[in-house]
Amino acid sequence: MDQMDPDDLDGGTPDTHRPSDQDSSPANGAATRTVGKPDRHASLVRLLTELSAERDQRGEPALAFLGQGYRLLEQNSDGGTLGTQYLTMVEASPYGICVHQRGKVVFVNSATMRFVGARVSTEIIGMHITDLVDAGSQDALLARIGSLASPGSFSEPTEMTLRTLQGRSVTVESQAVLTTWEGKPAYQVIMRDLTTQKAAEAGLRFQAALVGHASDAIIATSPDGLVTSWNPAAEAVYGHELDQVIGVPVAEVVGAPMSPREVVAAGGVVQATHYSADGTALAVRVSAAEMFDGYVLLCADETAQRRAEAEFATVVETLDEGVLLVGPGGRIELANSAAHRIAGVPAGSLVGLESRTLRLHDEYGVPVPVDDLPSARVRRSGKVETGRVVQVRRRDGAHRWLSLTSGPLMAPGQSVPSVLTSFADITERRAISERLAYEATHDPLTRLANRTLALNHLRRTIADPARTTTVMFIDLDKFKIINDSLGHTVGDQVLRIVGDRLRAAAGPSDLVGRLGGDEFLVITTGYAEAAEVRALADHLQRRLAESLTVHGRELHINTSIGIVIAEPGDTRSADELLEDADLAMYQAKTFGPGRYAFYAPIMRKRVQDRFALEQDLRNAVAEGLVETVYQPVVDLRTGDMVAVKAKSCWDHPVRGPIDPAELAEIADDDDLLTVIGAEVLAKAACEISRWRADHGVHCNVNVSLSVRQLGDPTLLQVVQAILEDAGLVPQDLSLDVDETALKDAADAVDALRKTGVRVTAERFGAGYSSLAQLCRLDLNVIEIDRSFVADLGRSSDAEPIVAGIMAMAHAVDLVVVAEGVETARQLEVLHELGCDWAKGPLVAPPGPVKDLKSAYTHVVRRM
């Protein structure tokens, strides 16, 4: 039928005599009520009469309630008393009862008022019924009312949403009945509050969903242990479908003895091993609780967790690092084997100990306070700490260095975290690191500080504005002679002895170092006056000059010392101070062996001049300004020129002519000597070859070779190419090598001699000359150093030395040349000693090739 509005129903108008706020009706809070109008009472009686026929056929709450009212009528004939009793029952009912006529509310009981949030009935009486119904339920309400065709007909119980006076929603179950009110058609609605039921249903649905989606097996059983419920997780854990287990003893399903009653009696939680349908063993934690109709079991499959725990325990136990777990109370709860091994205690003895009983020390050996232990620090900060290094002192007296990593572990329900600490024994690694650090800062031969450590120490001392720093740069005089003549083994031992003596002679707070080779360093801050520094230098030189014996040889060592004093406020860096001390040392060498010198700014000026001179020489070589001059070598017996010594000559535009010896020294420092030497050799070979051909004179070409040139792997090929270009045979060339370089260049010398080239030992006597050395090296000529020739005729010691050198040379059939003959007396002594050849200013100065002569008879001894 068409939807209708209740206002269209024939119901008359509402009674104008409505209860006021002062009415004593139960709807307004009174326990009883006196009905003032018989027709209103009669309406209620008629309502009950019309519905009495339905009281036994339906079980709806509304009809049941009406049935109760009808039984009151059957048992009571007094209408007034009956009305009062019925109204009392209506007011006391938990069901909401509302009567509306022509769409207007004409009666409500207390329950209805409670449903819609009214305090008194007058708040509702007279309202349109749809004002109390949610918009979503109004259409269904009107449809139900429209379906009631005759008095006594009623609708099916239906859910409906009320709208309270406060705007909230209330879900009720309602049933409408078409009746009469005061003789006119009306609708009585009986409502049951579904709020509690809905909440219960929602709770049941939630519980069902929870059970259905739980990851743990949930099993319900009867009191005697038969399965009555089996959730999906149980199917997954045990491999049995629901229809396979219902009614089956739970012990049979889980594959192991299982009594829910015994689990509850044991405290409700047990650990058990169950078996799935395929026989797989399961580690299960069983929780049991008793219900009104049996038991519920929660079976948590912990197989993976137990396996992981076992694997973790195995991993922890096999770690080479120690692992400790300190509980919230400060006791050690877990310690692996490595922890016991590193701590040097029996297995298992750490567990249960208070962590504060562990004896830890920091990197300086200071005991670690209790509140600074790893567990205390982590609990205080709540953060992970890594890389902390401590020392543990074991019961056996050994000290072990440990690297710690600690972090908090907070278990559920724990207010204070546990602390997990892992530690590695880094004792060996630390020892290696310390050894490497020591070796990186110390000289491996003498164990003294090396350059790096010395400079770092010097930087710290000069940074102190209150201290005066003194740097002493010490060089051993003529140490190269010892090293070359006696061998590096002896030389190394000499260096060790010198280092030991320096360490003993210096102050306890002084730094003693070796910079390399035969260079040593002393840095001291104990002296503020130059006189004190001089006294220290004298003390060091006297101590180092004391004789020493190495491999049966007694040796004497002199030292040259360069001194720099850096007073507070000195702006020089450590490197500059070291450089200045080096300059002062070279200045001391110019004074002779065993001397010392204080740095002066003029020394730096000399170095700068030397550097400028090196640059000028390099430019001169590039521009071809370095010339070659020749100095005759004359036979003292005949006066014939037997050889020509080729030398480099350079006329500096400012300083004038540069002595060949000084030029060679400058060129060797700048590595130009190899270039110049090759040019001199090529030019001398060609020019002397032509001069010999022009004058019909046979003489050798002598050219000096430096150590650098001897180390050139192409030297042999270069020499052979030059001789071929000049038309000379190898025997026409004599290569002059400094005596001190012969030992290191023995292979190169041998290679040259095998080609037929002659070799002369220059400056013989300046090094450690010996007959053994003459025999060992394949030489042709030795050249006595000019320092010995210069003393002839004025020092009684010179003649025996020169005589000894000649005797050694002649003993092995070598020719002896005297270098630097300047005076007639020197020439006379050389004749007397039987010297073979000579060269020097007295014989003939160096000059161009055109000034050469075939003979210089003035040097022949007159009879």
From TrEMBL:
<feature type="domain" description="PAS">
    <location>
        <begin position="210"/>
        <end position="247"/>
    </location>
</feature>
<feature type="compositionally biased region" description="Acidic residues">
    <location>
        <begin position="1"/>
        <end position="10"/>
    </location>
</feature>
<dbReference type="InterPro" id="IPR035965">
    <property type="entry name" value="PAS-like_dom_sf"/>
</dbReference>
<dbReference type="Pfam" id="PF00990">
    <property type="entry name" value="GGDEF"/>
</dbReference>
<dbReference type="InterPro" id="IPR029787">
    <property type="entry name" value="Nucleotide_cyclase"/>
</dbReference>
<dbReference type="Pfam" id="PF00563">
    <property type="entry name" value="EAL"/>
</dbReference>
<feature type="domain" description="GGDEF">
    <location>
        <begin position="467"/>
        <end position="601"/>
    </location>
</feature>
<dbReference type="InterPro" id="IPR013767">
    <property type="entry name" value="PAS_fold"/>
</dbReference>
<dbReference type="Pfam" id="PF08448">
    <property type="entry name" value="PAS_4"/>
</dbReference>
<dbReference type="InterPro" id="IPR043128">
    <property type="entry name" value="Rev_trsase/Diguanyl_cyclase"/>
</dbReference>
<dbReference type="InterPro" id="IPR000700">
    <property type="entry name" value="PAS-assoc_C"/>
</dbReference>
<feature type="domain" description="EAL">
    <location>
        <begin position="610"/>
        <end position="860"/>
    </location>
</feature>
<dbReference type="InterPro" id="IPR052155">
    <property type="entry name" value="Biofilm_reg_signaling"/>
</dbReference>
<protein>
    <submittedName>
        <fullName>PAS domain S-box/diguanylate cyclase (GGDEF) domain-containing protein</fullName>
    </submittedName>
</protein>
<dbReference type="InterPro" id="IPR000014">
    <property type="entry name" value="PAS"/>
</dbReference>
<dbReference type="InterPro" id="IPR035919">
    <property type="entry name" value="EAL_sf"/>
</dbReference>
<dbReference type="GO" id="GO:0006355">
    <property type="term" value="P:regulation of DNA-templated transcription"/>
</dbReference>
<dbReference type="Pfam" id="PF00989">
    <property type="entry name" value="PAS"/>
</dbReference>
<feature type="region of interest" description="Disordered">
    <location>
        <begin position="1"/>
        <end position="39"/>
    </location>
</feature>
<feature type="domain" description="PAC">
    <location>
        <begin position="386"/>
        <end position="438"/>
    </location>
</feature>
<dbReference type="InterPro" id="IPR000160">
    <property type="entry name" value="GGDEF_dom"/>
</dbReference>
<feature type="domain" description="PAS">
    <location>
        <begin position="308"/>
        <end position="352"/>
    </location>
</feature>
<dbReference type="InterPro" id="IPR001633">
    <property type="entry name" value="EAL_dom"/>
</dbReference>
<dbReference type="InterPro" id="IPR013656">
    <property type="entry name" value="PAS_4"/>
</dbReference>
